[in-house]
Amino acid sequence: MKKNLLLYFLFVSTLYSIAQEYKLVWEDNFENPVLNETQHWTIEVNGNGGGNNELQYYRRENIAIEKHPNGDGCLVISAKKENFNNKLVTSGRLVTLQKVLAKYGKIEARIQLPSTANGLWPAFWLMGNDISSVGWPRCGEIDVLEMGNVNGISRGTQDRYFNGACHFGETHNYFAQDATSSYSLQDGFHLYTLIWDENALKMYLDQDIYPNIAPYFEMSINGEKSPGKESYYFHKPFGILFNLAVGGNFTGITGNSNINQITALPSNGTPVKMYIDYVRIYQQGNPNDVFSGPALMTDIEKPTAFTASLGVVKSNTVELLLKATDNSGTIFYEISYGATTLKISGTSNVQKRYLITGLTPETNYTFSIIAKDGKGNLASANPQTVSVKTTVDTKVPLSAAPTPTIHSSKVISVYSDAYASIIHSEGWNDWWASTLSTVSFAGNNTLKSISNCCFGANFTTSTIDLSAMTKLHVDIYPEASTTIKFGLVTDASLDVKKSISITNGEWNSIDITLSELKALFPTADFTKVKQVGFWDISGVPFYVDNVYFYNGSSTDLNYVNMATDIQLFPNPISDILNIKSNIEIKEIDIRTITSQLVKRITLNSTEKTINTSEFKAGNYFMILKFVTGLVATKKIIKF
Predict the structure, then answer these.
(1) Considering only CA atoms, which of 323, 65, 350, 61 is closest in space to residue 188?
(2) Which residue from 142, 193, 267, 514 has the least number of CB within 10 angstroms?
(3) Residue spans per domain, the chain
(4) Looking at residue 364, what is its pLDDT?
């Protein structure tokens, strides 16, 4: 269980990053069943709409400490439809102003968000502690997380579209940066981090999983410190706020007359919940750091129940499964092999899955792993040793449309061994995403249906012309023998379906002819297809991999040998990346792991040298599009 303890936090890094030591100066893990309102929090009670035309009344009754289904104590903010003081919905908001304050440091919260669309606006933010004397926006405001914006709703990305922002000025100025994650942020807990020093404000998503991820928000505060300039407002103590707003300008829904547009709240008054697992403030002890709040206790307990084992092993990657328990709530692992040492962190009593990349095929490796808490107390079972031999490099099938007359927008590359972010860059916008999970199955990335629903997509272009294609290929692995329905929805809303029997215990490789579908549904307009999907009406979970439309037989598909056909060196990279290919490359995209485009290069060549000196340190995906229609994805690391 988590306790209020004194920890030291080693900022997670790779071999190529310089670790900086942060000291935990304050935390609330919400393990005490009674909220600490004496030292930590003030619950706000009002119905003033937050200055944003919000619809809720903030009530004390909507804030509680509850056990999450995973067993951890959490702060819970509930929103629900109910009549109270001329408002039709209620929710909660609480602050640490005047009680727990910080200037500079690393401030983070682990949060599970509710489904926001339509109408919910959860936030994790900070406000200048001098608001009572100077007012807003002179006090300054730092929004680490906001979600539920009308732009995410209109784009159908409401579970992934989020932003960071700062508000300031003698009159209102603001600077905001939005982002769209490659995965849902409403499917479980995610970590949101603010790193704040004398020079800049930077915000990060899931830095515990992706230690070298680029910030989704960054603003310099190292400028002229005069009224009206952003650098004037962010060098003083701030307090922390959490709230779950309902409606408001941010969501595009205002006024009680529009209450029926708040579809995220059940009409019967059932509450929806925002869970905060913990909130923490770390500082490095720099001369200008300021902290005001209650002192912490000293931690002398060692982590227990430390285990390390193998997950999926591939030609150039090894997955390690790590687990230990500690009263602090956080475990720090150090993984050593050869001359390399990696430092990562995980949650107490929760298995940490960590993928080691850049390995050599058919090579023996021995990994030595130690576990410790933030104070440096070593687990009694240290070290754990795991030995393994990487597999033979294999060819990875990729989607293709060999006929040159087919426009590239009609080539639908769903999922090979690429990552989920590539789905969206290749023209897909997945629907019913809450029923999907990205998993590793038998050494390959796949999509898995995890409820009684489906895997499917709306095309990002309005419709797709499939009339020139002859077949659809899909690989399906069910957890029980069942019947999968495949469907196309045309522009005329005609739902074209076909039942496919699939067998448990094996990958079912299926090719469906479009001519058969056209014969079954002669009125369907296959030049205007807007949706495609697979689903199992009996509720059997199933895996989907390697989906593509093509011409001719499946033997027409080409292959890219990832070991010999494409060479990237050096990788990891410093300033220069060299690319050599046996197949002529048409275009190269370099994207962050959240699918943000960093660089696009157009070429018709088999070789290219790229200057990466301006890239920030971290992990990237390189998407190579070949003149043959093939698409390949490579992971690169910048240090």
Answers:
(1) 350
(2) 267
(3) 29-292, 304-389, 396-557, 560-638
(4) 94
Q: Determine contact, residues 505/511, Cβ cutoff 8 Å.
A: no
CA distance 183 to 399: 22
Closest to 248 in 3D by CA, of 43, 58, 41 = 58
Question: Do β-strands 542-550 and 444-449 pair in parallel, antiparallel, or remain unpaired?
Answer: antiparallel
Count other Cβ atoms within 10 Å, centred on residue 172.
11
> What is the rounded radius of gyration, in angstroms, for the C-alpha atoms of the chain?
26
Q: Which pLDDT tens digit goes with each residue over 272-292? A: 999 999 999 999 999 999 999
List the one residue out of 61, 81, 79 whose CA is nearest residue 268: 81
CA distances from 560 to 256, 289, 399, 404, 564 (A): 57, 53, 10, 18, 9
Given this model, what pLDDT does residue 392 score?
Answer: 77
Give the fold, CATH level 3, of 560-638: Immunoglobulin-like (2.60.40)
Q: For residue 454, what are its two tokens?
A: 């489906």
What is the pLDDT at residue 18?
34
The beta strands (E) that lie in 536-575 are given as 542-550, 559-560, 566-569
- For residue 339, give Cα distances in angstroms to 313, 322, 352, 377: 21, 21, 23, 24
Q: For position 453, what pLDDT does the model report?
A: 47
Task: Give yes or no for a contact between 66 and 73, defined as CB atoms under 8 angstroms apart.
Answer: yes
What CATH code would you report for 304-389?
2.60.40.10
**Residue of 430, 417, 519, 496 whose CA lies nearest to 180:** 430
Q: What distance in Å separates the CA atoms of residue 195 and residue 201, rounded to the nearest whole number?
A: 6
Tokens 């070593």: give the residue: 378
CA distances from 173 to 127, 198, 201 (A): 15, 20, 16
Residue at token pair 């479980």:
188
Residue given tokens 């408001």 in the structure block? 248
- Residues 480-489 have a mean pLDDT of 78
**Percent of the chain residues past pLDDT 70, beyond the cut:** 76
185: which 2 tokens? Answer: 């942020």
- Domain made up of 396-557: CATH architecture: Sandwich (2.60)
Q: pLDDT band for position 566 (50/70/90)?
A: confident
Identical fold, 396-557 and 560-638: no
For residue 75, what are its two tokens?
Answer: 């702060």
Band of residue 404 on the pLDDT scale cut at 50, 70, 90: very low
Three-class SS state of 280: strand
**C-alpha 280 chain-centroid distance:** 20
Q: Name the class of domain 29-292.
A: mainly beta
Ranges of beta strands (E only) in 463-507 are: 471-478, 482-490, 495-502
Whether residue 441 is predicted with pLDDT greater than 60 in this model: the reply is: no
Q: Is the pLDDT of residue 540 over 70?
A: yes
**Does residue 538 have a pLDDT over 70?**
no
User: CA-CA distance, 427 to 460, in Å (whole number)?
Assistant: 5
Long-range contacts (CB closer than 8 Å, 24 or more residues apart) made by 227-230: 227/170, 228/169, 228/170, 228/173, 230/166, 230/168, 230/173, 230/175
Mean of pLDDT values over 591-606? 78
408 phi and psi angles, rounded to 5 deg = -60, -25
